[in-house]
Amino acid sequence: MEQRVRGRRMHFVGTMPQFASAAEAFTWQTGQLADAVERLSGGETGARLAWFVPLVKELMRSPKIRARRTGDWTGYDDVDRLAVRRGQALTAEDIPLRWARWAGEELAVLEALGTPATRQRPLQVGLPAFLDLCLFIFGPTGPVRQGRAFLDAVTAQTEQVVALGGERVVLQLETPAAAIAVASAPPPLRRTVAEAVGRLLLRQVRRAPRGTRIGLHLCLGDMGHKARVGLKSAAPLVTLADVLVRKWPEGRTLEYVHLPLCAGEQPPSTEPAFYRPLRHLGLPPGTPLIAGIAHENQSERTQREVRDMVERAAGTQVDIATACGLGRRDRSQAETAVGRMRALLT
């Protein structure tokens, strides 16, 4: 991997429970963190801290939908599971996605603050993969039965966001489902599974307008601040990222690759062998590797040692992030995690 010359940067995956509004989150990033952040996140505050759970609750009220199971989303076994009623067919228009509206509102907030989004410091907009939406809402058959509707809906949102912001916006493609599938597969089958889920993810990328800027956020889940699956090494993440990078569609810019190198409430490994597979990850020149290693449950000294292990294995300087958004932490935990991020820049 080619050595980068610029300094490390912080990357916020999305949610920020420290703030009550996007304006507060932007003011903090463009003020205290102005030299440390390249992409601005509105913090996905309020109900959006729960990722797409509000979408599920709203979709549940559709006359086309019935609830097979209801839940409060406190853990992986406490979720809603929906089904389309017999004789009904779900279309993109039935899926109440709001990402384009939120992107427009956040672009306007940045303008009002006097710190408009630019190509050099764009607004980052999180967009879950259609694969994840289908799986988590409808279960294992969701991608087969409802995939087209969700792909059409996500594509429409992507087109609207790009029309609003152009190069002033970076879309963050978020996919726990793909990373969990590869990490859960037996080692001999990992590449096969990665190729299968990679094809689905790249369908979404290919349908984005040419020129769209997209970052990858691979995820192991963080519901209740617990990962869905743990890792014995970074190998599954490297396998999936390698598939996606090698087959990345022409005309869509890969802005960064974020890897969750710790899991939920568990801090990152202190074993160098865990990170050695990173040597096999070949990113396009100039594409940042973002290491999801910042964690509130590990000392600053140990965190620096982990960062150095990652950089030695990857052969490049990395940017710093947590494994997932801060929204599954309380405010104190979130602030501690941010403190770790800042410390790891130097």
Give your account of this protein's structure.
This protein is α/β, with parallel strands linked by helices. It has eleven helices and eight strands. The chain has helices at residues 22-31, 53-59, 99-112, 130-138, 142-165, 176-184, 190-206, 235-246, 272-275, 300-314, 331-343, and strands spanning 65-69, 81-84, 123-128, 169-175, 213-218, 253-260, 289-292, 319-321. It has a six-stranded parallel beta sheet with strand order 3-4-5-6-7-8. Strand 7 (289-292), helix 10 and strand 8 (319-321) form a beta-alpha-beta unit. The two termini are 21 Å apart.
Lay out the secondary structure.
Elements: H1 22-31, H2 53-59, E1 65-69, E2 81-84, H3 99-112, E3 123-128, H4 130-138, H5 142-165, E4 169-175, H6 176-184, H7 190-206, E5 213-218, H8 235-246, E6 253-260, H9 272-275, E7 289-292, H10 300-314, E8 319-321, H11 331-343
Parallel strand pairs: 3-4, 4-5, 5-6, 6-7, 7-8
Antiparallel strand pairs: 1-2
Helix pairs in contact: 3-5, 4-5, 6-7, 6-8, 7-8
**Radius of gyration (Å):** 19 Å
**Secondary structural class:** alpha/beta
Percent strand equals 5-15%
Shape: globular
The parts where pLDDT drops under 50 for at least 5 residues are none
Give a brief outline of the structure.
The protein has 346 residues and is of the alpha/beta class. The protein has helices at 22-31, 53-59, 99-112, 130-138, 142-165, 176-184, 190-206, 235-246, 272-275, 300-314, 331-343, and strands spanning 65-69, 81-84, 123-128, 169-175, 213-218, 253-260, 289-292, 319-321. It contains 11 helices and 8 strands.
